[in-house]
Write a structure and sequence with these properties.
The chain is of the alpha/beta class and 247 residues long. The chain has a single domain, classed as 3-Layer(aba) Sandwich (Rossmann fold). Helix 2 crosses helix 5. The termini are far apart. The strands form 3 sheets. It has a 9-stranded mixed sheet, with helices on both faces. A hairpin with a 4-residue loop joins strand 3 and strand 4. It contains 6 helices and 13 strands. The longest helix is centred in the first third of the chain and has 16 residues. The relative contact order is 0.18.
Length: 247
Amino acid sequence: MKILVCISQVPDTSTKIILKDNNTAINNQGTTWIINPYDEWYALIKALELKESGIATEVHLVTVGKADVEPVIRKALALGGDEAIRIDADSTDSYQTASYIADYARSVGYELVLCGKESIDYNNGTTGTMIAELLDADYIGFATHIQTEGNTVIVQREIEGGEETDSCSLPAVVSCQKGVAEARIPNMRGIMAARTRPLKVIIPTEVVAVTTILSYELPPAKAGIRLINPDNMDELVELLHTEAKVI
């Protein structure tokens, strides 16, 4: 069984976001980029576990982006992927990204496509479902456990108030979250080998985006803490009624 793992590049959560062009774009200068944690810690590691158990024969990695995403895909390769593919296109649109990945996946014929449940930049969580639709494959989301039996994939997933177990026939697309695998870090041998391994670069057929970002808005700065004397409960009650906000 061949597995394709979708890898996305996202800003490190400690990076300070700076807007430009009248808040219509993000200034990437000085931004630290990382692999989307849901893609790395869960989707990729689960694919590697399936290979180590003898269920999968190959684990391929795919990302959409220009040359600046190559350090991220190489880190994923260092963890143990067999082949890395970069689809040479800019995209902030989920449909565009899904279309590029689905076109490539269709041309190769993967039995299982794994991705994180969402990316930590836009938090859309829609790319995996779109890939499945474009491939005419079944989709199961938010997996906490994945196993296969013959031509069937069995997935445990979290639901409101508990868990449910679903199954579907391969090929399928599954999005992963915490619990599906144990995070790993690449070893030095893997890191050094990944630096020189060739990347497969695909020039895609252009796909028209269906969404456009009009503007960005940073969250308001955190207000200072107000300390109330414990002997003045009336003031505290008054502030809770007039100024406190329920989030």
